[in-house]
Amino acid sequence: MGSIQQEPLLEEGKRPITVLVTGFGPFQERYPVNPSYEITRALPSVLPPTGLKDRPIQIIAYGSPIRVSYADAQELVPALLEAYSETVDLVMHIGMASGRTHYAAERYAHRDGYSKHKDLDSAVPDLEEHHAKYGDCPERMETGLDYGKVLQRWQTLVKESPESAPEHGADCQASDNAGFYLCDYTYLTTLAWYGRRNGRLEGGKPIDRPVIFFHVPGESDEESLKRGTGVAKALIRAMAENFAESLQ
């Protein structure tokens, strides 16, 4: 697992809302550069406050890409969440959706359906082991955040960004299907971890499952990465605002 550092408070008495962000590594020969990780590591460490009772947003970009492997994701993700359990308020996983030209915030993760597409190790999850790990989960696990509010705020932030901003004009859409592959599986793993920790696998408040999966197009040229980074920052801000509102 890559290096983990506990981040200090930015100002005395003003604890930031802290967001853990991850991305994925190369995917087959077609995508030797995965834009999800390039966007993750391009994010700033802090987004200045715009409300939130003057609370800034601190971003912890995990320093290594998640390998496109079920076994690797299952080993890494719960350990990472445990390591940051006292530090992180929100989690955003970023993944690539090849063939798409739009950005998508995923509402659900699926419990089942991971036997069709093999990972980089030519493997799929063992059905018996998978059921033992996730049999307590609903068929579709949903983010605990108010998805409609986060989506609307995200789209508004991108739409109202300055024309000179790289994210201006980006197509940001809702999505109910995270794809039944590593992106979906990673989302499921994190939602299940939080749901069990907080005793709410369904329903509840934003704090119960404070996670969203963010899908980006497959292009990795400089312009696309700048646009994706800007869109990611807007989604992080929308998530943080919804989380802060729930604490009031």
Task: Describe what you observe in this structure.
The protein is α/β, with parallel strands linked by helices and 248 residues long. It contains 6 helices and 9 strands, in the order E-H-E-E-H-E-E-E-H-E-H-E-H-E-H. The protein has a 7-stranded mixed β-sheet with strand order 2-3-1-4-9-5-8, with helices on both faces. A two-stranded antiparallel sheet has the order 6-7. The radius of gyration is 17 Å and the shape is globular. Mean pLDDT is 92; it is low at 3-12.
Number of helices: 6
Shape: globular
Number of strands: 9
Which structural class should the secondary elements be placed in?
Answer: alpha/beta
Radius of gyration: 17 Å
Which strands sit side by side, in order, in the main sheet?
A: 2-3-1-4-9-5-8
Task: Name the assembly state.
Answer: single chain
Average predicted local confidence, pLDDT:
92
Give the N-to-C terminal Cα separation. 35 Å
Which range best describes the helical content: under 10%, 10-25%, 25-40%, 40-55%, 55-70% or over 70%? 25-40%
What order do the helices and strands follow? EHEEHEEEHEHEHEH
Unreliable spans are 3-12
Largest sheet, described in full?
A: 7 strands, mixed
Query: Which percent range describes the beta-strand content?
Result: 15-25%
